[in-house]
Amino acid sequence: MIELDGVPELVDPVMVAAFEGWNDAGDAASAAVAHLEREWKGEVFAALDAEDYYDFQVNRPQVWLDGGVRRVTWPTTRLSVVRIGSEEGPVRRRDLVLVRGIEPSMRWRSFCNEILGFAHELGVEMVVVLGALLGDTPHTRPVPVTSVASDERLAQRLDLEESRYEGPTGIVGILQEACGHAGVPAVTLWAAVPHYVAQPPNPKASLALLHALEDLLGVGIPLGDLPEDARAWQIGVDQLAAEDSEVAEYVKSLEEARDTADLPEASGEAIAKEFERYLRRRDGHPPAGDPPSSYLRDPGSGRTRPSRRPPEGGDQGPQDPGPGEGQEE
């Protein structure tokens, strides 16, 4: 039984998670959740026991000095709460539970059950997992973000894809599968990172994930310096690519392939979506006419519905990680 006496009752809570490691190309996903923690001043209320899930020879603890006193920070996964809006203000009240950590080394089923135990106690009605993969995408174009749902009905309701990926998976895929077993709606947002510039950080991919999260939840996310960091990152990669004729030619071929594939999308729809994001960030709420996020609230009650507790020790088979970790559909 997880006791969360210090956490206030949440309103329309959504859990947003990201994990460093195999599912986090360019550290794009974990950096996006870290951005949310900083901008909304997240308050950490729980951390998983590092002894249960991590191999310290793989993810080593860090020693640091605190006023001359040596301290140790253990690799783990931490949960924080951010509270958006207010009852009286123009921004509709919404709470987020942020989960940020490292892909565990062992006991993945227990790890996911513990995360979902927190989700149950907090009344979380939806889990959004952020991930990033390496793909054949040019750094000069918008970062592709694919949204996949945990089941067919949720995919239809939110107009998303249902993942058809088969192959090796990471903790992102396993957590989405655990959500399905627990009856908790789950969506994974995958950003494609250029494989020829995979080293972190990649602020452009983090920014794309935050844009996709804005569209999914209908909230305006303060972006801070992230857009400028993304522009500086692209300029830097442009300069590096220009120094190597083979790389420049390869990038050009990726651009041509991407432009051909995206030609049907080059319409007013993309412009309209970006304008809606602008209005959300300016006004703090969705533009007039946007439907509220009805899947997060029990209609008419004004209160969140409790989630079902994940099955204790239930068997969870392998789950797809979305549209390919290390490949694109």
TrEMBL record:
Residues 279-329 are annotated as: Disordered. SUPFAM superfamilies: Cgl1923-like. It comes from the Bacteria. Coiled coil: none annotated. InterPro entries: Proteasome_assmbl_chaperone_2 (IPR019151), PSMG2_sf (IPR038389), Rv2714-like (IPR008492). This is PAC2 family protein. It comes from Streptomyces boetiae. The lineage of its organism: Bacteria, Bacillati, Actinomycetota, Actinomycetes, Kitasatosporales.
